[in-house]
Amino acid sequence: MSQGQYVAAAYGVVFAFVLVYVAIIAAKLVRLQRETAELLELVRRKDAATRRDPAPVVEARSEA
Amino acid sequence: MSTSAIRSVPGLALLTAGLMGSALVLALIVVPEDADQGISQRIFYIHVPIALTAYFCFGLGAWKALLLLWRGEERHDLESYVAIHQGTIFGALTLITGSIWAKASWGRWWLWSEDQLVLFLVLFLFYCAYFMLRFSLEDGPRRARSSAVYALFGVVLIPVSFLAIRLAEDLIHPTVFTRDGPQMSGSMFATFCVAWGAVTLLAYVLYRVELAGKRLDADLRDLREALP
Amino acid sequence: MTYLADVAALTRKDLRVELRAGDTLPAMLLFVLSTLVVFHFALPEGTGDDAAYGLLWVAIVFAALLGLARAWVPEQEHGVLDALVLAPSDRSAIWLGKTLATLAFLAAAQVVALPAFILFFAPLDLTAIAGVLLADIGICAVGSLMAAMASAGRSRELLLPLLVLPLAIPLIVGGVGAAISPESERYLLLLALYDGVFAVLSWASFEYVVTEHSS
Which chain B residues in 132-161 lie under 8 Å from chain A, judged by CB atoms? Predict the structure, then answer.
């Protein structure tokens, strides 16, 4: 490998690391999206349940 | 909790992009080539800033650890962890770019005579053990404090190891290879500064993004537990 | 002063347990001797004495790890550590007591191992032995803290060497340097610096590592 190619390799590795990082964040976003959807579903189901059966409601607390 | 803190990050990220772009142009195109070492010297502009940034991250992690032990606020645990995580990633990058530079300059992938590389190897091992420690302990104040104490040991280890490695060189290898030659010219120094700023900012942006992601994780978990 | 009395009591407890059970010290001793013999076969013909000094230090470090593990495992298994932490004494006394006890075991093992080394391999002068003693202090001090950290988690036998080895590197440099370098004072100074800094740090932070609540 020529000297110039080593330079390219060094900078390229850094670039690759950053891109891998972006990919990991994207994957995390997908997972967070899924979890939020599940939680939303849970809330909707609870809402529907308490409307059918009006027992004392425990409000879902959300962390600010 | 502090997801609002993410608001400033896109701006910072754009600034990083600009700085990084300038740094790349300066380092690869604009700055004159070193007479002695040739084109491989250009690796210096990315390798050294990454090394310095890794130290910065370890320092940040130790600072947050100190805050945790001192003030006892739980959020510092995650901040310390993420900082050290960043430091380890940049540390690995330091070893990789350093190795490439060694190969390009002196024909070998590893040189025990290169103080900085050896120091980073020791630190890398140390901080990898940090994660082993964290994974083996249950989540809770004990894990947070043990991690914090370990992180503090890390920064104390840096100067002590450096001393030890310098002394060790006399035992093992006479210093045959000298580092980057004489004083940097003005344009080289300016390029180095831009690159250093860019990499440090990059690490900080990644730190904030990762921290926000982990906080979001924790918030969602709390939410899930709050819903019966 | 009750602090020193506590430390003395804890150290005595460990030493007494060992004298009664008598398994740690012989094990460490045998380990070091066996390792030295293995080294003889591991070193190729014509290797200088210097290599032997290097290997001596490897043997010492691993023997210390053995001793540290043995000093902390029974505490964890029988919940002794938790009981000690609840006791109304300064927690750092626990660390000091353990460190002194482990130091005693390590030194006792070396009383036999070092002459064996001189017999099998190469002579050891005063500075080399001073190096061994200083490094003993360092490794026991740091090792006790790391062992306490690891004891709360899973796979603690595996974790302890991982935590201790990077920290032991300056000690090995100091020890080997004290043995083979003509400028051995620099290495002894390094060891003394290490001991001073890390012993104080370990002593001060032990409290945080073993308690659950804010002090």
Answer: none
Contact B227 A35 (CB under 8 A): no
Domain coordinates of chain B in residue numbers? Answer: 3-226
Chain A interface mutation, best of B42, B53, B210, highest count of A Cβ atoms under 10 Å = B42
Rounded Cα distance between B121 and B112, Å, is 10
Segment B63-68 long-range contacts (CB within 8 Å, at least 24 positions apart): B64/B148, B64/B151, B65/B147, B65/B148, B65/B149, B65/B151, B65/B152, B66/B148, B66/B152, B68/B144, B68/B145, B68/B148
- The encoded tokens of residue C86 equal 């609840």
CB-nearest partner of B206 from A6, A9, A21: A21
Per-residue CA distances from B40 to B52, B54, B175, B178, C40 (Å): 20, 22, 21, 15, 44
ipTM of the complex: 0.87
Determine the distance in angstroms separating the CA of B132 from the nearest CA of chain C, rounded to an integer. Answer: 7
Distance from CA of C19 to the nearest CA of B (A): 32
Whether chains C and B touch (3+ CB pairs under 8 A) is answered by yes
d(CA B155, CA B55): 9
The answer to whether B65 faces chain C, any CB pair under 8 Å, is no
Mean pLDDT of C27-50: 81
Q: Is C83 helix (H, G, I), strand (E, B) or coil?
A: helix
Average pLDDT over residues B139-162: 92
Work out the number of other CB atoms within 10 angstroms of the CB of residue C64: 28
Q: Which residues of B touch A60 (CB under 8 A)?
A: 223, 226-227
Tokens of A22: 């972006």
User: Distance between terminal CA atoms of chain C?
Assistant: 22
Residues near C84 by Cβ (< 8 Å), separated by ≥ 6? Answer: C10, C75, C94
- The answer for residues whose C-beta is within 8 angstroms of residue C86's C-beta and 6 or more apart is none
CA distance C198 to C167: 10
Q: What angle do CA B196, B201, B207 make, to 5 degrees?
A: 130
Q: Taking the domains of chain A in order of start, what are their residue ranges?
A: 21-52
Tens-digit pLDDT profile for residues B16-60: 999 999 898 888 888 777 777 778 788 888 999 999 999 999 999
Does the predicted TM-score (pTM) go above 0.95? no
| Most confident residue range from B194-208, C4-18, C100-114 | B194-208
Query: Facing residues of B34 across strands?
Result: B38
Cα C135 from Cα C173, distance rounded (Å): 10
pLDDT tens track of chain A, all 64 residues?
677 888 888 899 999 999 999 899 899 989 999 988 988 888 888 888 888 876 665 555 544 4
